[in-house]
Structure formats: structure tokens, C-alpha cells
Amino acid sequence: MLTFALKSAIILALFYWVFFALLSKETFHRLNRITLLSALALSVFLPLTPLTIELPIVEAAVEVNIEDLGGMAMSVEETEASLLTWLSNLPWLAILAFVYYAGVAVSLLMLLIQSVSLMRYMQHGLRHTDAFGNTVILKPGKAASFSIFRTIVMSVDDYEHNRDSILRHEQAHIQLGHTYDLLLLEAVRTIQWFNPFVWLLGRDLRSIHEYEADMSVLNQGIDSTQYQCLLVSKAAGPTAFAMINGFNHSQLKTRIIMINKQKSSPKSWARYIALLPMLALAFVVSANVQRVPVQPSESGQNIKIVSDSEQKGKHLVICEGNKIADMNSIDPSTILQVSVFKSTDNLPSDVKQLADKYSEDAKNGIAVIYVKDGKYKPAEIKTSDMKVKQNGRNDVFTVVEQQPEFPGGTQALMEFIRTNLRYPVPCVEDSIEGRVTLSFVIERDGSVTEITKMRSPNEDLTKEAIRVVSAMPKWIPGKQRGEAVRVRYVLPVTFRLK
Q1: Which of 280, 278, 261 is nearest to 24 (CA)?
Q2: Is residue 381 a part of any domain in this protein?
Q3: I want to staple 190 with a disulfide (CB 3.0 to 4.6 A). Which of 34, 107, 321, 390 is the partner?
Q4: Domain check: are 315 and 274 in the same one?
Q5: From CA 403, how far away is CA 301, in angstroms rounded?
Q6: Where in the sequence is the domain holding 338, given as residue range(s)?
Q7: Residue 475 lies in a domain
């Protein structure tokens, strides 16, 4: 529904732009009315047409970036949080859908309230039938004159003193079927309540209705000067209901200008040719664009898997002045603080010295780790730290003596993903990229369980990543004190279209 509403709004905006820029000041009232009604109708029906345009996607590599975060992966992913991350994880599509449907509901409610008020207003008053079979309702006091379908409402005073002009004006509205135009307008406006162009179009369509009715009255022999004076006298009177045609509904100035304006030259008809390119563009906008991507082959030749270091280089890790090559060499229990600097600009003096010392390694960012007692000590696994218990075999470890390993190692893991991963077609069509971070448990028998999403930019990417992980063969389980244990593993995968 959201796609339909958006396409409908764009089509309406295209036609209205041409109308306002080239046609709105012409005296071809009937043709202008047809133009605006066609814009309303096309904005509704074109998006519903089964028109499909196939656009092939040029075969391109899909890069899947697998970052090996090591033993610290779990703690980093669990503790990292920011406003940007929170915003990116919000269900924006669901939020937009809620706002749109709420707007539709409010529009329908307002239309219902106006309709009920109008029906109640028309229930009372003196009734009789005019020469054309229309029902005329006379209201006491200073009632606004208007018409709807085959009913005319006017005040008793207007009927006694201005009957000819006002009655002929409202009869013209009925004969020309202006009420049906307004019904179509209200239907489209309910769907496109958010579109400013539908409100502008409604204003201009009502003005055209008044132009047509005014010219009909003058063509019946009513004096032009007296009629314009009547318009002026009624301009400050009560306003009719918004959803119907009222005698003093439209702008007074434009009506008087249009009454006295010289008729447009026949050559001005050429301006309407500008609608043809807009019509063609509207068909393109409304079409269901079906992009046909080239699926990766069974050998996975269209999928490239690279490590983070291959893509952008590893950042420099410093612990108490020492360059750290293996995060597993640091005992996590001794870490007090971790400071990350993505750039070498505006560094603290002590960090600046480290950046200068390791200039080449520091160009991709610096992570400074501070430990207890200010001394770097290689991690030692102590017996007291072991969590293996006789009655606690279901404990899940994050750091163990022997980490779980995919059969054949990291290269085999890459090859498995290379062969099985398929970039979701909707994500290719919409150019959706981003990182999916999954957490799962390697059981004591090597099976993969408890697959959960930690972070993802898109549900289709999440489903594909989970599908591939679920299809993995059994791993070589992690071990602690020589015994197989359950180990939580974090796998971040970055989907990127090239």
C-alpha cells in the first residue's frame, strides 16, 4: 500500500506541475477540468495496472566481509551501543506504515464527520422543486448557497432578492456534474493525505468549477456588472461546507479576473501537448520495475570473501606501550579501559607518541588498552577460573583453552560460505548493504545451535545469514581442561554490493 500511495503521489505531482506552469491561466475551463480529473484518475489507476519493465542487473561481484574478531568478539559486540546503532535498528518501514494508515484513518473520520453534518443541515428547511427537477431547500437567516448532486441550498433572503443569478449558478454546477468531481477528489485526497499537490489540485479544481458556473450564468443573459457586484457582496458571507460547491466558495479575485479575461488564443492549445511526455513518465513511474540479477554460480565465482585486513588493513592495538598482535594474549579480567581512535588527528600526547612510533600500523586506527597495575601480562588460564563443573555441563564459555574450529579451518569456512551464500534478490534490487552479526553456540558435539541476531540492517540479510549458518556441518568443538564444552561464537558478516 505504501508503494501504491507513493507512486500515486508522484504521478499526481507530475501532472499538476505541468498544469500549474502552463495551463492554469488559460480560459479553456472545460479542458483544464478534464486535465485535473485525468490527473486524479491516472494517479489512482496507473499504479494498479499490471505494467512490468524488466531491467537486467549487470553481473557484479558480491563481497562478503568476514571479520575475525578473536576472543574479544563477544564482549565488544555486547557492550557496543550508540544512538546511530539504535536508530539504524528501528523498524522504519513499520513506523512509516503506521503513520500513513493513521493519516488515512483521520482523513476518513473527518470526511465522515463532514458528511453527517451536511446531511443533518439539509434535513430542515422549506423544500420545492425547480424547473429542472432539482430540489431547492430554503434556509432562514444568512445561509450560504451551495449545491450537491440534484439539491440546491440557499437562504430565503437570496431566493427573494438574488434568485436568478444564484439559482442559475447552482443549477450549472448540477448540470455539469461537479459533485462527482469532488467525490473523486476526496477519495484521492484520503489516499494521498500527505501529498501537498493533491490539496493544491483540489483548490484549482474548485476554482474551475466556479469559472464554469459563472460563465454559464453570464451566457444566459445575466448582466456581468451586476453579477460581479453580487459576488463581491457575498464574499464576506457565511462559508459553505468544504466538500461541496458553494456560491462564495472560491477566491473572489480570480473569479472576477477570469470573468473579464480575454479568451485564450486557439494557438494556446499547443500547450496541452506538454501533457504527453508527463503521461509517458507517469507510465514509467507506475510500472513494476522487475530487475533480474545474475545469481551466483554454484562455484560461487560472483562472491568474494575477504578478511578485514585485506579490505582496509588492521588497526594498531597497544597495551601499555606494547604492540599486540594477538588479542588472546591479554587476560580479559585485567582490562580496565579500551580507547579507540579512528584517526590520527587530535590524539592525546601519549597516544600521539605511539602513533608516531608505529606510524605505518597506526594509519588504520589505534586501540589503546589499559590493564590493572599498569603492567601488560600475557593471559594465563588458571585452574580457579575454569567453569567446568560436575553439574554444570551446560555452561556456555566465551574464552576457552582451545577455540572451536570449522572443519578444515578458516579457509574452509570461507569456502563454505562462498558456495552457499546467496545475496537476497530484494536487497540487490534496493541496493541494501550492511553488516549482519550473528551469535551461536558450538555444542560439545560440534553442532551449531542457539543462532541469534545481534545486529542487522535488514531482515532479508538476516534470514540469509541464519540459513547459511544453520546449514553448517559440525565444528571441531572447543575444549577446556581437555573436555569438550559449549562455546559461544560471534560471526559478523558484511554484505556489500560492488
Answers
A1: 261
A2: no
A3: 107
A4: no
A5: 30
A6: 309-374
A7: no
Question: What cell does 444 get?
Answer: 560439545
Cα separation, 461 vs 424, whole angstroms: 7
Q: Which three cell numbers stand for residue 17?
A: 506541475
Residues 111, 243: Cα–Cα separation, whole Å: 8
pLDDT tens, residue order, the chain (498 aa) = 778 888 888 888 988 888 888 888 888 889 899 999 999 998 888 888 776 655 554 444 444 454 444 433 333 333 333 455 555 556 777 888 889 999 999 999 999 998 898 889 888 888 999 889 999 999 887 788 888 899 999 888 888 888 888 889 889 999 999 999 999 999 999 999 999 999 999 989 988 988 888 888 888 888 888 888 877 777 656 666 666 666 655 567 777 788 887 788 877 878 888 888 888 887 777 766 555 544 444 444 444 444 444 444 466 787 777 777 666 666 666 666 667 776 666 677 777 777 777 777 777 777 777 776 655 544 443 433 434 333 345 678 877 778 889 898 877 888 888 788 888 888 887 888 888 888 899 999 999 999 988 888 889 889 998 999 999 999 999 888 888 999 888 887 778 776
Please list, in sequence order, all residues whose beta carbon lies within 8 angstroms of the beta carbon of residue 31, skipping any fewer than 6 positions away. 272
Among residues 335, 358, 374, the one where a domain terminates is 374
Domain count within the chain: 2
The grid cell for 82 is 550508540
List phi, psi (to 5°) of 458: -160, 140
Distances (CA, A) of 24 to 21, 90, 117, 264: 7, 44, 33, 11
Q: How many CB atoms lie within 10 A of CB 452?
A: 11
Shared domain for 318 and 277, answered yes or no, is no
Q: Is 216 left (phi over 0), alpha (psi -120 to 50) or beta?
A: alpha
225: which residues sit within 8 A by CB, 6+ positions away?
none
| Threshold 0.70, pTM exceeds | no
Same domain? 178 vs 237? yes
Residues 317 and 370 in one domain: yes
244 and 360 part of one domain:
no
CA distance 457 to 137: 62
Q: Are residues 251 and 343 in the same domain?
A: no
Query: In this structure, are 337 and 259 located in the same domain?
Result: no
Helices (H) and strands (E) in the chain, counts: 18, 18
